[in-house]
Design brief:
12 strands, 4-stranded parallel sheet, alpha/beta, globular, 4-stranded mixed sheet
C-alpha cells in the first residue's frame, strides 16, 4: 500500500478483497462493493432501490422494530418513514403475516420492504423475491451480522440474491475491522451503480449522474478485511461449538429458532423464562458483580425509543414487546474455553434463581 501510494478510491487492495469475498463467501456468484460502514451501505441501498418511487406517495419503508437503531436512521436519511411490523416469536425476524397486514393497509404508500436477518438468521429470500414480484415493492436486506452465516443449503447467506444484502464489518461483528461493510447482490448493474453513488454519484468521470456521498472503504480497512478472511472459517466454527455449549448448559431458556444451516453469532441471545423476565435488571446487575459482560439487544426496541416513537409509525407489536422485555445477550467469542462457558452459565442460572428467593 505504501509503495503504491493508493490509500482509498477503491484501490487495488479493496479490489482484491471484494473479489476474494465473492469467491470465498458467495461461491463465486454475484458481486459486491465495500462501504466505510454498514449504515451508509443501508442508506445507499435504500436510495437505489427506491429511485423510481415518488416519495410524496410512497412514504414508508416496512421493517421490524426489533433491530438496531442504524436501520431506522438509514430509512430516515434516505427520505422515508419507518413503518414497524411485528416479529415471528420463534425466529425473531419480521412476521410475514404482520408484513402482509401493513402492506394491505398502506398499499402504494410503501416504498420498500426492509427485513432484518436478525442476529444473522437466514431470512427467507425466496419469500421476499416473490413478494417483490407480486407487489412491485423493492426489497433491501439488512444482514449486518450475517457474515459467516449459512443458508439452508449451506451457502453463505445471501448467495445469488437479487436484492441488496448489506453486511457489517464493525468491531463487534464476527469479522470486525473497526468500521466497514459491504453490499452484495447478484446484479452487477446494481453494484456498479452503488459504487458510483459511493463515489459522490460520479457515473461519469468527475460528473455526478445520481445521488451521491462518500462511502469508500480505505485501503487499510480492506487490508484488515483480507486478513480477517484468512481466519473467518476457523473463528466461526469455534463460535458454533461454543454456541452449542450454551444450549447444553442452559436447559429451560429460550433460544432463537435458526432458519439456516449455521449462525455466526457475535453474542449469544437468550430469552428469559416468563418467571424471570420481570427481574431482568437484577439478573444483569448480579452478572456485572461477577464481572461477566451482558447486554440486551434489542431492548428497548426501536418503537420504544423516543426519537423513533415520534418520527415513525407502527402496527401491532405484541410479539416484539414480549421478546424485547425478556432478551439477554451473553458473551460469545471464539477464544472462550469450555470452563468459561460453564462459569457464565452457572452464574447466569444463579442470578436467575436468586430472583425466586
Amino acid at each position: 500500500m505504501e509503495n503504491s501510494g493508493i490509500y482509498t478510491n477503491y484501490g487495488p487492495i479493496n479490489q482484491k478483497f471484494e473479489k476474494r469475498l465473492v469467491e470465498q463467501i458467495f461461491s463465486g456468484v454475484g458481486h459486491c462493493v465495500t462501504v466505510c460502514n454498514a449504515t451508509i451501505g443501508l442508506m445507499m441501498a435504500l436510495k437505489y432501490a427506491t429511485r423510481h418511487k415518488d416519495a410524496r406517495v410512497a412514504r414508508y419503508v416496512l421493517m421490524p422494530s426489533f433491530t438496531f437503531a442504524a436501520a431506522a436512521h438509514a430509512v430516515l436519511w434516505a427520505g422515508f418513514t419507518p413503518l414497524f411490523c411485528d416479529i415471528d416469536p420463534s425466529d425473531w425476524m419480521a412476521s410475514h403475516a404482520a408484513e402482509n397486514e401493513l402492506l394491505h393497509e398502506y398499499g402504494e404508500q410503501v416504498a420498500a420492504i426492509f427485513p432484518y436477518a436478525t442476529f444473522g438468521n437466514a431470512t427467507d429470500l425466496n419469500h421476499y423475491t416473490e413478494l417483490e414480484k407480486q407487489t412491485g415493492i423493492p426489497v433491501v436486506i439488512d444482514a449486518a451480522a450475517s457474515l459467516g452465516a449459512h443458508d439452508a443449503l449451506g451457502r453463505g447467506f445471501g448467495t445469488g440474491s437479487p436484492h441488496a444484502i448489506i453486511c457489517s464489518l464493525h468491531a463487534t461483528k464476527t469479522m470486525g475491522i473497526g468500521e466497514g461493510g459491504f453490499i452484495y447482490a447478484s446484479n452487477p448493474d446494481m453494484i456498479e451503480a452503488l459504487r458510483a453513488m459511493g463515489n459522490f454519484g460520479f457515473g461519469q468521470f468527475r460528473h455526478a449522474t445520481m445521488p451521491g456521498l462518500n462511502s469508500k472503504l480505505p485501503e487499510i480497512g480492506a487490508l484488515l478485511a483480507l486478513s480477517g478472511l484468512d481466519n473467518l472459517e476457523r473463528v466461526v466454527q469455534r463460535k458454533c461449538r461454543i454456541e452449542q455449549m450454551y444450549y447444553d448448559h442452559l436447559p429451560g431458556f429460550g433460544f432463537q429458532r435458526q432458519r439456516g444451516a449455521r449462525m455466526s453469532y457475535q453474542f449469544l441471545p437468550v430469552r428469559l423464562p416468563t418467571r424471570y423476565a420481570p427481574y431482568r435488571n437484577a439478573i444483569l446487575a448480579r452478572m456485572k458483580e461477577k464481572r461477566i459482560g451482558t447486554s440486551t439487544y434489542f431492548s428497548p426496541h426501536l418503537y420504544e425509543q423516543s426519537y423513533f416513537a415520534s418520527h415513525c409509525k407502527a402496527g401491532d407489536l405484541q410479539a416484539t414487546n414480549a421478546l424485547a422485555a425478556s432478551i439477554v445477550s451473553l458473551p460469545l467469542w471464539h477464544e472462550m474455553t469450555p470452563e468459561m462457558v460453564r462459569y457464565v452459565c452457572q452464574e447466569f442460572m444463579n442470578a436467575c434463581d436468586a430472583t425466586d428467593m
